[in-house]
Amino acid sequence: MKVTFLTKQLPVLLFIVLFSAACGSKKTGSMSNVAPAQTLDGYQAHALSVVSPKQGSFDQPVKIEIVPGKTMEVDCNHHSLMGEFTEKSLSDGNSYYVFESNGQATSTLMACPDNTKRMEFVQGQSIFIDNINAIPPVVFTSEGIEIKQRNWNSSTPYAIEKEFNHTVETEATSALKAYPESLEGYDRYVLFLPEIKNSQKERKVEIIPGVTTEVDCNKHGLTGTFVEKNVDGWGYSYLIFNSDGGVVSTLMACPDDTRRTELVTGATHLMNYNSRLPVVVFIPKKDNFSVQYRVWEAGELK
After folding, report:
1. What is the fold of 158-298?
2. 132-163, pLDDT tens digit by residue?
3. In this structure, CATH architecture of domain 3-152
4. Are 297 and 153 in contact (CB under 8 A)?
5. Taking every pair of C-alpha atoms in the chain, what is the biggest distance, in angstroms?
């Protein structure tokens, strides 16, 4: 997402919007529209709801999916709202989001059996944000565009192993033969996701790289980025995490007794849950590197 900085006037405007949204709805309440007088010129403002601190803890984090859309008349084809999200940042590090759209939708071009039409909420491209702020995030949209949200709940993190054994041949284990077996300077980690039957809930998988190192009372983060590569001729993809193992942190003064050894995580990668293909991740070949995963489960779209 693009990141830009506001002019001098907008921090005051956004503070009013955030204050109004925080005072006008409960933390666990439904999403509410902010009064039109407090929107950016030509835009509508929507305040998302946030979950309670207990639900949004480090051990059981919550992600918010922001879903733009427009209720319109459609036929039997699949329709998608055109538009783009932009994340904008204040100087204090807080963010808000703008979805710009002309309200038009694209669709598949199947021949429908009749001229039956129906009203439907046609979705645009959604984005995911971490639920880490007590103040509800604010989304600005072009006129006529609606915003819905879906909260995603996670499992605890599980380790992905370098060495794996499988006694039963499955579609995923067979597909693994097409993936690179090695990459110079990297270890290969492979995850086989279990098949989930009789469930209509949408799921995603988050890949979490980490490094075990000594830390103090500051907040720490592993530097590095994921690159997604395609397996030539197959349509499969795998991940490479590029990192030199560097760790960044806040700069608070800490007592000596706060030093401890801890797993420090970095940028993560969110992907669709698919038990028919293996998840293949290459991580730098260093003793203190590791990789974990979480499974995210979608709640109701509201």
Report:
1. Immunoglobulin-like (2.60.40)
2. 766 778 899 998 999 999 999 999 999 998 87
3. Sandwich (2.60)
4. yes
5. 74
Distance from C-alpha of 216 to C-alpha of 254, rounded to nearest angstrom? 7
Residue 209: CB atoms within 10 A of its CB come to 27
User: Among 213, 189, 188, which residue's Cα sits nearest to residue 288?
Assistant: 213
Q: Long-range CB contacts (< 8 A, 24+ apart) of 81-84?
A: 81/105, 81/122, 81/123, 81/124, 81/145, 82/106, 82/124, 83/124, 83/125, 83/142, 83/145, 84/125
Q: Is the dihedral of CA 248, 249, 255, 259 positive or negative?
A: negative
SS3 at position 22:
helix
List, for residues 87-125, the tens digit of each pLDDT value: 987 666 678 899 999 999 999 999 998 888 999 999 999
The two structure tokens encoding residue 299: 């709640």
Do 3-152 and 158-298 agree at the fold level? Answer: yes
Q: How does DSSP assign 36-90, residue by residue?
A: GGGSPTTEEEEEPP---TTTTSSSS-EEEEEEEEEEEEE-SS-EEE--EEEEEE-
Report the DSSP beta bridge partners of residue 121.
71
Domain edges within the chain: 3-152, 158-298
Strand partners, 294: 206
Q: Locate 222 and state its tokens.
A: 């592993």
Residue 203 corresponds to which amino acid? R
DSSP string of 180-213, one letter each residue: -S-BTTEEEEEE-PPP--S----EEEEEEEEEEE
pTM: 0.77
